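User: Show me an example of a complex going from sequences to structure tokens.

Assistant: Sure. Here are the input components:
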Amino acid sequence: MTAYHWRPSADLSVLRLRAELLAQIRAFFAARGVLEVETPALSAAAITDPHLASFKTCYSGPGSQHGRPLYLHTSPEFAMKRLLAAGSGCIYQIARVFRDGEAGSRHNPEFTLLEWYRVGFDHHRLMDEVAELVGMLLAGRLALAEPERLSYRQIFQHHLNLDPHRATVADLAACAETRNISIPTGMPPDDPDPWLDLLLTHCVEPRLGSGRLTFVHDYPASQAALARLRPDDPPVGERFELYINGIELANGFHELGDAVEQHRRFAQENAARRAAGLPIMPMDEHLLAALEFGLPDCAGVALGFDRLVMLATRKTSLAEVLAFPLDRA
Amino acid sequence: MATYSTNEFKSGLKIMLDGDPYAIVENEFVKPGKGQAFNRVKVRNLKTGRVIERTFKSGDTAEGADVVDVELQYLYNDGEYWHFMDPQSYEQITADAATVSDAAKWLKEEAICQVTLWNGVPLSVAPPNFVIMAIVETDPGVRGDTSGGGGKPATLETGAVVRVPLFVQNGEIIKVDTRTGEYVSRVKE
């Protein structure tokens, strides 16, 4: 703890820009008739994804004498889908979200997500809108060429000359070796996904979105998370990510509306948690009930606002755009 | 020795990799939004000085290396080994040429050096940042030159050669910065 740590780590000019960008975002959605909503940060249920860690806290008081666990949301996705199922129409939210275990130049355990859902859109139409919004927010601040769209397969073929949908663990390990990546211990011999993540983070991501918006879409079905599957050969998840200058900025889905499939994925993720010795998370039964009632056909996206500010100001770390990052919190 | 989780990684931490001691130079947390988190770590081999990159799955551990920096007094060189002494315990430690390496030319008897020990054995020796030594050989300078421009080579009592201003003479005592190998000033007796 040093003496100057009471001060913000971001310049006040950057904090003013944050406010200006937030105002622009609100004006953008107001002009399009997208409703701003707020949902709880504390939830009885939590995300089951083994790669996301929820903060757990406890509520004691009226209605709960002995205390009951509540989890800080990692994104407002589940609650927003309940609103969509209840007939809200198109909605957006600017939410503070929380992820345990994540800290670095591009991660802070709490950060601001802009999340929005468009009824009647598929993921490609939503990518158009993301490009419009981000283009508007970065105009005059970061020179950008025309956006591009590449499939997950294309980026792996282009940068590593391999097909991510067909490659075996042996192929992926051999590729990592030729790229001089030291193989971490404990990489699974039977699951290609961590190997794909290894190659993606080390060799592909740093080169994505160089001077432009690069949308990557159609992910392996095993990485679909909450996206619909399209029965191609092999089937792909209708999911996309946005990169600018190597920074992952947004993640979107053509949303899965099938309650049975969603329940199956939650259960599968909890099984993976158990196998990895991670805590089992309570599934969001409200979400499952809402999906059963009926989610309108929609696409949704979550955009990391702090990383956007980082790009707009050409900074290289989140600490430079947050008033008080973890070490000053 | 303790083990360290990737959550404890920071620059300067000493860890064991493939049987060699390393110091962490840089630690970067990378994580795709929906996937496996990794720590990409740059580490310096404390035996060779070579910097390599290693990747860990976040949450994994590495064994700590028993590496400490101690202040030891340089005693003498017996022709093969350099002998040092702990000024508190009077314990003596010897280091070979590979370990002393470039520090050798700055070692004057009684100098306090920083010696890096791994399991009690010297890995490297750092001379004092500044040393004071006599010039044993240099060409006669031009009288009246005080500009410091130009300069000429001068051999010191330990054999080190440094560039000194033209006005500095044979037999004079000078102060040298061992980190840059540069002349700092003349020293009055």
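The lines above are the inputs; the final block is the predicted structure for all two components together. Chain A touches chain B at residues 49, 51, 101-107, 181-187, 193-194, 196-198, 200-202, 205, 223, 225, 241, 248, 251 (CB under 8 Å).
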